[in-house]
Please model this.
Amino acid sequence: QLQASGGGLVQPGGFLRLSCAASGFTLDYYAIGWFRQAPGKAREYVSCISTSGGSTDYTDSMKGRFTISRDNAKTTAYLQMNSLKPDDSAVYFCAAQLTGLNAKRPDAYTYWGQGTQVTVSS
Model:
């Protein structure tokens, strides 16, 4: 199972750090992805990180603002989000997959967290 946490209400320009804690399986073997979904919109790819953490990827609109990381010893992945904008408001999900392939596709992931709400508003 994956447990996402760290969401909340933040003002524009603020920051949040989301966590994704794994239980019941060895996180080391899984690539981690973050997705988000705003009301009435499709689930959107945000970022992914390889098993070792040596390779990361971001959607263009998040580059330079978001940073994905992981601590396999703590079986936890993170998404540091800076310079948040109202358009970043969504439910954020973390997901895990073994292959690391098709990382931008939600259907490539085996495990999903329950989501954590991020609201950016003044």
About this structure: The two ends are 34 Å apart (CA to CA).
